[in-house]
Amino acid sequence: MRNHLGTYECKLCLTLHTTEGSYLAHTQAKKHKMGLLRRAKEEEMMKQREMPVASTNQSEVMAKKVKIGRPGYGVTKGVDSTGAKCLTFSISYPEITPGIVPRYRFMSSYEQRVEAPDPKYQYLLFAAEPYETVAFKIPNEPIDK
């Protein structure tokens, strides 16, 4: 591959070559051929990992389940008796998997990859199988659960 400086670069071996002839000689050399063999072995191992294996592990079985969509939800704003701002989240999971307790977590705006990070906000995520995870963007203020 030719880079922005006009030299040739082998991405596999991470080597730079000043001329096309030098690069072509490199592709016939031992170092490059060993790199190709190593890459082929790694790709073969990746294919073997991707093949489904019969499993009785419950976490693996749950990971393969299909998500059925977003749960119903409602958000209520309010003020409590001390004058503090309150947000109440009502989330409906009518077809939740038996034995699953809905989980929640707070996420920094720097952890998420959907929007540009904004230090003024954080996210509250709720998850329960077989529903998709839902997130709410809330102000980044101290929280009293």
Question: Quick summary of this structure?
Answer:
The chain is an alpha+beta fold.
Low-confidence stretches: none
- Give the overall shape: elongated
Major sheet strand order: 5-6-7
What is the first-to-last residue Cα distance?
Answer: 55 Å
Structural class: alpha+beta
Task: Give the number of DSSP strands.
Answer: 7
Largest sheet: 3 strands, antiparallel
Q: What's the pLDDT, averaged over the residues? A: 84
Return the string of H and E elements: EEHHHEEEEE
Strand content: 25-35%
Number of helices: 3
Query: What's the gyration radius in Å?
Result: 26 Å
User: What portion of residues is helical?
Assistant: 10-25%
Write a structural description.
With 145 residues, the protein is α+β, with helices and mostly antiparallel strands. Helices cover 24% and strands 28% of the residues. The chain contains three helices and seven strands; from the N terminus they run ββαααβββββ. 1% of the residues are buried.
Write the layout of secondary structure elements.
Elements: E1 8-10, E2 15-17, H1 20-27, H2 30-50, H3 58-63, E3 72-79, E4 85-92, E5 103-108, E6 121-127, E7 134-139
Antiparallel strand pairs: 1-2, 3-4, 5-6, 6-7
List keywords for this structure.
single chain, 145 residues, 7 strands, 28% strand, two-stranded antiparallel sheet, alpha+beta, three-stranded antiparallel beta sheet, zinc, mRNA processing, nucleic acid binding, elongated
